[in-house]
Amino acid sequence: MSRIQCPRCLRPQTHCLCPLIPSLDSRTRVLLLQHPSEVNHALNTARLAAQGLKNAELIVGEVFEDLPALLNQPGYQARLLFPGEEAQPMQTYTANDEPLLLVVPDGTWRKARKMLHLNPLLAALPRVTLAEGGVSRYRLRKAPGPGALSTVEAIVQALQTLESPVSFEPLLKPFEALIEGQIAAMGEETYQKNHGR
After folding, report:
1. Domain edges within the chain
2. Scanning 66, 145, 155, 189, which has its CA 20 to 30 A from the CA of 32?
3. pTM of the prediction?
4. DSSP codes of every residue in the chain
5. What is the distance between the alpha carbons of residues 140 and 178, in angstroms, rounded to a whole number?
6. Are residues 52 and 44 in contact, defined by beta-carbon separation less than 8 angstroms?
7. Membrane-spanning regions, if any (predicted)?
8. Topology (CATH) of 23-189
């Protein structure tokens, strides 16, 4: 027998995160391009980010046929949030800056790189990157390297840089509750054995 699921956050009704999901305004438009393999992941942080931001859109796929229209948003400059040699560190907006359309691939690093390969228009976008030294709160997964963040954490850090002094911390509340719920479900002993430092 399957558990009743919340239709919005897709969590079991008994662990619904909706009361914790904020409804935040942002000057920046966030376009999340989610690899299909992430859709049913228990910790789908891209969905949480899209639900918590009024100016965000989540699209699932590997090849995005309507990418030209998605990237050509009047009044926004499209930038890809992805590391690379040409990536520019993000700066706080000045009064005259045109806001960004921040394009965020969501998937493992390997799958995100594949999405760029399959969508040359995406790969050709000017890239922006986060400040170094971000520490993930994602205690359930070993980070592939220093500064590796979950999708929602990367978006929060990006928006806090761009739109300082506005705080986007409320976006992390459902994420933290999700992690606490997973730890509780596995039990402290199992968590410490597999994830404790």
Report:
1. 23-189
2. 145
3. 0.87
4. -PPPB-TTT-SBGGG--GGG---B--SSEEEEEE-GGGTT-TT-HHHHHHHHBTTEEEEE-SS-TTHHHHH--TT-EEEEE---TTPEEP-PPPTTPPPEEEEEEES-HHHHHHHHHH-HHHHTSPEEEPPTT-----TTS--SSTT---HHHHHHHHHHHHTTT---GGGHHHHHHHHHHHHHHH-HHHHHHHH--
5. 10
6. no
7. none
8. Alpha/beta knot (3.40.1280)
